[in-house]
Design brief:
Number of strands: 12
CATH class of the largest domain: Alpha Beta
Bound molecules: iron/sulfur cluster
CATH architecture of the largest domain: Alpha-Beta Barrel
């Protein structure tokens, strides 16, 4: 079940060091970290706006590694709202090496329902190069514990990290699928100001993915997770922070998911169109689920233009009988 997140930020709090790519002040757009008073205020705002099953979400840091009195002050502020049924639960994001039985007991007692782990890669070498400070086995161990204790597990991965490749990211996705999370977030790496990656990029020691490379790879990853029945709840950094101000290089687009889903439809259409006789340009009708028409068409009709560049003149039509990502193609004159 999905709930609206009432997000509060604890930017970098609890992080033992700064990972190569990370600048939470830019990503979240917040300099201040949440306080107990902020928890009450955020819940009140959500209730005033009619939100009845929101989930309080602490993002942007390593929640379970926050120094204990501060972490407890946030949980103590949140719990009465869970008990009163004003929010449906609490979601936290944290590091895989900051999970053990003791902390999970505390989280459970205070109404935490979902835990997201920043896995980022399942290659130990990529994790080391990006200064993550944990291993792929930490991700496996923490994921198993979280699921055993009955929490909803979320996993986050990145593409285009220092030392990573497309095949490396596909391997990471396969390993994450084995852990059977309920949700996944995929973040193509963006080079942000005041990060180690920015320094390496400026010295010519790191080449980020282009937007097109990231879109192609994320199209593969998204299909892998969806085929495995795992919901991808985020693709690309949120445009709500200060990413556009702190951006130096890399694959950032405010509508990354739309681009990726559009690419899935373009690839599928091209694959099917190759089954038709070649020769001069032909006209085709492409049928998709009515909700998916804009994805098939692409942003600014980009997919239709690309199909035309490949000698396929296409128009898109709705068909209620088709599921997401299913397409049917007919020659127009038939
Ligand atoms: S990626 Fe996570 S653990 Fe690393 S610095 Fe950022 S918030 Fe902290």
């Amino acid at each position: 079940m999905s709930h609206k997140n009432i997000a509060l930020f604890v930017a970098h709090v609890g992080c033992p060091h700064q990972c190569s790519f990370c600048n939470q002040h830019i990503i979240t757009g917040k300099q201040e970290t949440a306080t107990a008073a902020d928890v009450d205020a955020a819940v009140k705002t959500a209730l005033d706006s009619g939100c009845r099953d929101g989930q309080l979400a602490f993002f942007g840091g390593s929640f379970t590694a926050i120094d204990r009195p501060y972490m407890m002050s946030l949980l103590e502020a949140a719990k009465p709202h869970v008990d009163a049924g004003e929010i449906s639960g609490i979601r936290v994001s944290t590091r895989p090496d900051a999970i053990d039985g003791e902390i999970l007991d505390i989280l459970k007692e205070y109404g935490v329902t979902a835990i997201e782990l920043g896995a980022q890669s399942m290659s130990d070498e990529v994790l080391r190069k990006n200064r993550r400070g944990h291993t792929a086995d930490d991700v496996r161990r923490a994921s198993a514990l979280i699921k055993e204790q009955g929490f909803e597990l979320g996993l986050q991965m990145m593409t285009g990290l220092l030392g990573d490749t497309d095949e490396g990211a596909v391997f990471t996705a396969r390993e994450l699928i084995k852990l059977q999370p309920a949700t996944v977030r995929i973040y193509p790496t963006v080079v942000l100001e005041h990060t180690e990656l920015a320094r390496l990029y400026e010295n010519g020691e790191y080449r980020p993915q282009s937007l097109d490379e990231a879109v192609n790879l994320c199209a593969r990853l998204l299909l892998m997770f969806e085929d495995a029945g795992i919901r991808v709840i985020r693709l690309g950094l949120h445009s709500g922070g200060n990413v556009e101000d702190g951006y130096i290089a890399g694959a950032y687009h405010p509508a990354m998911r739309e681009l990726v889903e559009g690419r899935i439809y373009l690839d599928k259409a091209l694959e099917k169109l190759r089954d038709f006789e070649g020769g001069d340009a032909h006209r085709y009708k492409i049928f998709v689920n009515p909700k998916e028409i804009s994805k098939m068409t692409g942003q600014k009709r980009e997919n239709i233009v690309q199909l035309k560049d490949n000698n396929y003149i296409c128009n898109v039509f709705p068909d209620d009988g088709l599921k997401k990502y299913e397409i049917l193609i007919e020659e127009e004159d038939k």
